[in-house]
C-alpha cells in the first residue's frame, strides 16, 4: 500500500518505518541521537500563530502534502533533516486528524513516520505513545461478545471476521506494520514481554488477512520465535519455528534458503533445551542446503555451530575438524582480522581448555584478543563484546580473575550505551559480580548484582532461572556485608522464582533453601530454618544417597539447629560465616560454573 510499505531507501533502525506485510525487518540499533537535534528546544510561536495554523489545517490537501514533505526530508537528510521531517510528520498528523473519516490510513502513516524519526534520534520512549495511537487508528475493535445486541443470538454460530478483513488488506497492512513497529520499539527499550505481545498481535492480524499457511506468515512466525529466544522462552519459540518450517516446506522448493534459515533457528532452540542430537540434525540439513546454493560463508558459519554441538556432545575430534574447516573459509573470505575469525579462535580456545590443553587454549585466546584490539572496519560492538565475554570465562576458569574482570569491563564499555542490549549488559554485570565476590570485593559485587537485577526487572525478565540465581548470588554478597534483612528478602524472592522455573527439587533451588535456612537462623527464626533444612535433607537423601558429602553437611547443620531449638535463651551466638557453613565456600568455587549455565549470550 502506498506509504505503508517499507521503503528501500529507509535507513535500518530499531523501529523502522512501517514494513511490508510479507517481511518483518530485523531489529537493529538506531544511530545515536544527534546533540544538535535531540536537545534543540522548539521556538516559541507568537500569539497569533496558533489561530493561523488552525485555519491552515482545514485545507484537505495539506495533510498528504506535509506527509510527502516529511518523507522527502527523511531521505535527503539535509539541513537538519530529522528535525524538519518530524515537524512535517506531526503537522501532517494534526491536519489528517482534522479531516476525520477517510483519512485514517494516511494518519497512521504520518504517525509511523514520526515514530521512526523519534527512534532514529534515540528517543524510543517518545515513539511508544505515537505508535500506540497509530495502531489504535487502524486496528478494529474486538467483535461484540455473544449475547450483545439483538442479532447476537441469531448469528452466534457464525464467527465474525476481524474488521481489518472487511475493510480491505490495506487496513490489515497498516495495523500489522504498526504492531510490529511498536514491538521493535519496546524491544529496543528492553521490554521483551511487551514486545512479544505486540508481535503476537501483529501475527494474529496477518493470519486473519492472509490465512495461517501463507509464506509471509512463516516469516513473521520466525521473527516472533527469535524474540522468544531472546526472552529465553524456548518452548514457545520451538512451536513458532516449527510452524514456519512447515509452511516453508509446503510452499518452497526442496532445500530452499528459507527452510535452511528455519533449521538454523530450530537448532539454536534445541541446543538451548539440551537436545544436541536434534540440533545437529537440523544443522547438517541446513549446511547441505547452503552448499547446494553456493553459500560458502554461511556454510562456514554453520560449521561453527556444528562444532559447538559436537563439543557439547564431547565429540572433540569432530568439533576441531568443524572449527578448522570454518576457520579456513572465513580467513580466505573475510581476512585474518575479522571478528568472525576471532570467534572461531574463541571456540577452539574453549575446546582445548576443556580437554586440558591449556597452552593451546591460552594461545587461541591471545589470537582472538589481537583481532578484537584492532578489528576490521564495520565490526559490530555486540559481536566483539560477546567474544570478550567468552574469553573472560576461559580466563576465569584458568584462575586469572583480574584479567577476566578487565575483559568484562571492556565488554561492558562497548555495550552500556547501546539500546536494546539490556539483557546482555545485565549478564556482563552479573558475571562481574561473581568475580568481585570471588576476589573478596563484596561491596563491588553487590553493586554489580544490584545493577543487573535492576535492568532485568525493568525489561520484564523476572521469570527465568537466571534471575533467580542472580538474586541468590546478590544475597550471598549481602551476607558478607552483614546486610541480613536485605539478604533474607533476596533469598526469599530467589526461592519463589526458582520454585516456579526449576521446581522445588532442582539443585539451584535447594541451594537457595540452604541459604535461606542459614539466614533465618541468623535472624533467630530457628523453627523456620529447621523446617527448610528438613526438606532439603530429605530431597538430597533421595537424590544423592545418605553417604554424599552434601548430605552429611546438611545433617550436621540440622542436628545443631535441633539441639539449639531445645534451649531457652542461652543460644550461643555464631558468626555468619559459621551459620552459612560450606555454602559460601561452595558459592565461591561454583560461581563460574553456575553463571556459565545461566548466563546471557549475544
Automatic annotation (TrEMBL):
TPR repeats lie at residues 300-333, 385-418, 510-543. Residues 1-64, 138-169 are annotated as: Disordered. SUPFAM superfamilies: TPR-like. Coiled coil: none annotated. Transmembrane segments: none annotated. PROSITE patterns: TPR (PS50005). InterPro entries: TPR-like_helical_dom_sf (IPR011990), TPR_rpt (IPR019734). It comes from the Eukaryota. Keywords: TPR repeat. This is Nephrocystin-3.
